[in-house]
Amino acid sequence: MKILITNATLTGRTGTEVVVRDLALELKRQGHGPEVYSPALGPIANEIRAQGISVSSDLRRLTQVPDIIHGQHHAQTLAALLRFPDVPAVGVCHDFTTWHDAPLVFPRVLRYVAVDYRCKRRFDENPRVPKEAVRVIPNAVDLARFKPRPPLPAAPRRAAIFSNYAAPWTHAPAVLKACQDLALEVDVIGAGFHAVAAEPESVLPQYDLVFAKARCSLEAMAVGAAVVLCDSTGLGPMVNSSNFADLRKLNFGAGTLTRTLEPVLIAAEARNYDPQEARRVSERARREADLSHAVADWIEVYQEVCDEYAAGRADRAGEYAALADYLVAWGFEAGVEWDRLRLRDALHWPKLGGWVYRSLQDGVLRRLIRRK
Fold it and tell me: What pLDDT does residue 228 have?
């Protein structure tokens, strides 16, 4: 199949950007023809191109008409749908709160896929999204990259905070204090400490205990580290064989971080370190979160959509109506709501100063000031 994958940006190494890279590479390995569209490109786009996959910031420069659009982020998904007026799409949600992951309701979006059951609620709570069109395909790990580490020591020696949200003003100080109390050596891997790992698969095996959430935690489990779910929004449990299934339903993500970031609570979870449990968790993660199996699930959904679209009839009038609704919801007339959502997202991001700078450039704050 020819698949066009969209994403808001490919300038860093956020969760969706890594998903785009891994999905595109695995689709190509399995004999399909992926291409990628994002308006902002960076090093990870070059990594995808290096594997012979077309990546473009201009939809007009794409080299093929796709069979289906794998739509991440509604603005870019809509742009791709308008560029290719006879191609259906799958709408994907990776985040329960961010504005750009809101569902895109459009006649040619025939399936909606969430990465966990918390994100699924965004579709379930939208009356315009058909219940029967919603699926869940959890995140997965490229096991060819994230290989098992040697057995863990009886007691942890080195720990890592693995998160782009880790910063001196988020959860890093609390975790560092907890590790200090436990006499654990600890490093930070992430943008907030200018320590982004382009190849985390080569770094994670150095650590016995990892504090992370969502995709980062799954990658740490895959290599065999013990994992405490922890990030800027709160603290979750140490992952073990008993809670794995329930935590996976929430993508080991923000929905699992239900406690406050107190060093004493973090240290208590770290004391649950058990090498045998970590091994069982790793084996299960590798069995249930294999990227090659997840891509097979995606292909099944793509085929459903293509078959359904081929059997139906184009609804051009419905598309114009959906486009009008989109412009009302997200256009300049709804600028106050747009700004409110962007500001809310920014308050959860450690590099708030960077957002303020960019916002001044694109006029968001100027519009807010004028409305005062």
Answer: 97
Contacts of 278 (CB under 8 A, 6+ apart): 152, 224, 225, 226, 227
Report long-range pairs for 349-356 (Cβ below 8 Å, ≥24 apart).
349/165, 350/164, 350/165, 350/166, 350/167, 350/169, 350/170, 350/191, 350/192, 350/232, 351/167, 351/191, 351/192
d(CA 199, CA 189): 11
pLDDT at 341: 57
**Secondary structure E strands in the chain:** 2-6, 33-37, 55-56, 68-72, 89-93, 109-114, 134-136, 158-162, 185-189, 209-212, 226-231, 234-238
Nearest to 113 by CA among 289, 304, 321: 304
DSSP state of 251: T
pLDDT tens sequence across 314-331: 788 999 999 998 888 887
Q: What is the DSSP string of 67-132?
A: SEEEEESHHHHHHHHHHSTT--EEEEE--SS-GGGS----TTEEEEEESSHHHHHHHHT-TTS-GG
SS3 141: strand
Measured between its terminal Cα atoms, the distance across the chain in Å is 51
Domains in the chain, CATH or no CATH each? 2-140+291-330 (3.40.50.2000), 158-288 (3.40.50.2000)
Question: H or E element: which one contains 316?
Answer: helix 316-330
pLDDT of residue 357: 40
- Calculate mean pLDDT across residues 7-27: 92
pLDDT in tens, 258-290: 999 999 999 999 999 999 999 999 999 999 999
Question: Which residue type sits at 122?
Answer: R
Nearest alpha-carbon partner for 17 in 146, 198, 170, 166: 198
User: What is the reported pTM?
Assistant: 0.85
Say yes or no to pLDDT of 84 above 50: yes
252: left (phi over 0), alpha (psi -120 to 50) or beta: left
